[in-house]
Amino acid sequence: MARPQIFNQQLVIAKAIECFWLKGYSETSLADLLKAMNISRSTFYNSFGDKRQLFQMCLQAYGQQTQQLLSLTLLNDKLFSLSAIRQFLQLVLLTPAEELASRGCLLVNTIAETAKVDAELNEQARQLMLPVKLGFIHQLEKEFDHETSLRHGEWLFTQLLGWRLQTQMGMDKLILQQQIDWSLLQIEQQLKKAVEC
């Protein structure tokens, strides 16, 4: 009888995330995963069940990484609101290397890929993205009333989704930085108007 394969689960899931991130859920085959994760077929089924269960674990792990970024920025009450938003946008859009940026965001990619074909995976990815929108709103509520914060938070979230797509299309980081600066300037001007009234 063969001995069970021993592996570092965190490392193996990180390899699976990379695989799904590069090819998407539907285009990633079991063979791709086994090669990337460097485990046997029997170990795969014994440890992860099937491709879908593994993908759900990968989404959760990726969501936890996003949560760590949020804790440093959008959920950090020590930062000034627009500073926190700027830091978050720079971390997710401008800091990654070109090769990584060209992949976009695993959660955003999953939402787009599963929109019409898999309601459960789509909802899971949406729920994992929701804290980003709530983080924008949380920071904006330091400066604006709730309704205005919701409106600006939704707008920033929509911008972020568009910028994620633009990075996949190879948008120049200088242009992206200018767009981030311009977007935050619009909010800053709204803030100045509110103070003057």
Mind sketching the topology for me?
Layout: H1 9-23, H2 30-37, H3 41-48, H4 51-72, H5 81-94, H6 98-101, H7 106-114, H8 119-140, H9 146-168, H10 173-196
Radius of gyration: 19 Å
SSE string = HHHHHHHHHH
Which ranges are low-confidence, i.e. pLDDT below 50, for 5 or more consecutive residues? none
Tell me the structural class: mainly alpha
Major sheet attributes: none
Beta-strand portion reads under 5%
Query: What is the mean pLDDT?
Result: 93
Question: What is the molecular shape?
Answer: elongated
Intertermini distance: 78 Å
Count of DSSP helices? 10
| Total beta strand runs | 0
Query: Helix amount, in percent?
Result: over 70%
